[in-house]
TrEMBL record:
Residues 184-413 form the SUF system FeS cluster assembly SufBD core domain. GO terms for biological process: iron-sulfur cluster assembly. This is Iron-regulated ABC transporter permease protein SufD. It comes from Chryseobacterium takakiae. Residues 18-176 form the SUF system FeS cluster assembly SufBD N-terminal domain. Belongs to the iron-sulfur cluster assembly SufBD family. The lineage of its organism: Bacteria, Pseudomonadati, Bacteroidota, Flavobacteriia, Flavobacteriales. Pfam families: SUFBD_core, SufBD_N. It comes from the Bacteria. InterPro entries: Fe-S_cluster_assembly_SufBD (IPR055346), SUF_FeS_clus_asmbl_SufBD_core (IPR000825), SUF_FeS_clus_asmbl_SufBD_sf (IPR037284), SUF_FeS_clus_asmbl_SufD (IPR011542), SufBD_N (IPR045595).
């Protein structure tokens, strides 16, 4: 009797190869063709990660990779003003940029910023005067060893490009909406963001993804952030999509001396979310902040993988991730801090605290330090547990119901990861999402 091995069909991988020539023919920016082909070859050589790969040991991607997807989304939509209004944070004084089915829609956007270079990524690729910018920045800090970043380089077309010139302060936060709607098939997006903040400049970005269909959406997003001396760049990710959404997000931030960069990640929705976050220090006196709040239930999965590369002395990094897991949800946290031998006087803090609300929920957490310098202050830690029974008793003794007491304690547990948000409407929105998830009434 001949034994056969049941090898799963990697449907998505086959589609990627089959669709690439068609994709290239649909574009006008020929100067990237060879780079795209090389990226596809790297992807084919690497392949999608499996649970045998250490970095994906606790995250099974089969649910994503065995589905079929449409690589060319329909552009038509019927998004209503009410639907858009519900996505906003009450940010009448903000600017916002709306992409629907991959395309930038100016009529659904509000852009008042001046003295900056702002373009959709697709338009920027087609604009000859921005060729030098892309030669200088595009894909220079994104990993060449990741299947998803290579796949994004091969297929990216949609996204956001912003260059803030020297000493320009953008007072209004900019909210980027990525919306998928009116798709009859599962749809695959490779979104690309490029942010350049020159010396002394300042900007704050909010990014959110929204699927309005019952069909599945897979978004493979890559963001590159360049923060120059004495500049400040904040990027806030609000992940609250529906149960037919998958998000693979890879963000890379390179900082020059005396700069400050923050990436906050708030994960409440989506069937499977993987966040890869890399900070690269390219000078002294740098400050890097990473904060995250995850509240999920049912069979959701959220995976945070972070890395900070301390390559110069007198720099600080701060990571604070909180997780609350219910139902059969699964969380992953793997935070790495690398301290080079010349990076003396480094101060690196890393903490991951988690609460499990049900027997079916789980968390795999692994904070890591690799230190090659001797004059440093580095700490890391993690906790996994349940609510404090004494605190719960204290609240119930004062007439608060068990459910409300639990919710209040969980709200307080997660709240400190929001302390460095200086956009009040965003802080209020995250607070409301926390309250909704925890089913508690909180006055703001």
């Amino acid at each position: 009797m001949v034994q056969t091995t049941d090898i799963p069909v990697m449907a998505l991988k086959e589609q990627i190869t089959e669709n690439h020539n068609k994709f290239l023919e649909s574009l006008r920016h020929r100067f990237l063709d060879e780079k795209r082909k090389a990226a596809l070859q790297r992807f084919e050589r690497i392949g999608f990660p499996t649970k045998k790969d250490e970095e994906y040991k606790y995250t099974n991607l089969k649910e994503i990779t065995e589905k079929t997807y449409n690589f060319f989304p329909k552009e038509s939509h019927n998004i209503t003003k009410e639907q858009l209004d519900n996505l906003h944070l009450g940010e009448e004084n903000f600017d916002w940029i709306t992409f629907v089915n991959g395309k930038l829609h100016k009529e659904l956007s509000k852009v008042s910023i001046e003295n900056v270079e702002f373009l959709s990524f697709n338009y920027a690729l087609n604009d000859e005067q921005h060729r030098e910018v892309f030669d200088t920045y595009f894909n220079t800090i994104a990993s060449k060893d990741s299947a998803f970043t290579n796949l994004n380089e091969a297929y990216c077309k949609y996204g956001f490009f912003l260059k803030v010139p020297k000493n320009v302060i953008i007072e209004k936060p900019i909210h980027i909406f990525y919306i998928s709607q009116n798709q009859e098939e599962n749809t695959f997006y490779n979104t690309r963001n490029l942010l350049i903040v020159e010396e002394g400049a300042k900007v704050e970005i909010i990014e959110s993804h929204h699927n309005f269909d019952s069909t599945y959406v897979l978004t493979n997003s890559v963001t590159e952030i360049f923060t120059y001396p004495n500049a400040k760049a904040d990027w806030h990710k609000v992940q609250n999509d529906n149960d037919t959404s998958y998000l693979i997000d890879s963000t890379f931030a390179r900082q020059e001396k005396d700069s400050l960069t923050t990436v906050n990640t708030f994960s409440f929705g989506g069937k499977l979310v993987r966040n890869n976050l890399d900070f690269i220090h390219n000078g002294s006196n740098i400050n890097s902040f990473m904060n995250g709040i995850t509240i999920i239930g049912k069979d959701q999965l959220v995976d945070h993988h972070t890395a900070v590369h301390h390559n110069f002395p007198n720099c600080e990094s701060y990571q604070n991730y909180k997780g609350i897991f219910n139902g059969k949800s699964h969380g992953v946290f793997n935070g790495k801090v690398f301290v080079d031998k010349i990076a003396q006087k480094t101060n690196a803090y890393q903490q991951n605290n988690n609460v499990l609300l049900s027997e079916g929920a789980s968390i795999d957490t692994k904070p890591q330090l690799e230190i090659f310098a001797d004059d440093v202050k580095c700490s890391h830690g993690c906790t996994v547990g349940q609510l404090n029974e004494d605190a719960l008793f204290y609240l119930r003794a004062r007439g608060i119901s068990k459910k409300e007491a639990q919710a209040l304690l969980l709200y307080a547990f997660a709240n400190d990861a929001m302390q460095n948000i200086d956009i009040e409407p965003l802080k209020e929105k995250i607070s409301k999402l926390l309250a909704e998830k925890l089913e508690v009434d909180i006055e703001f």
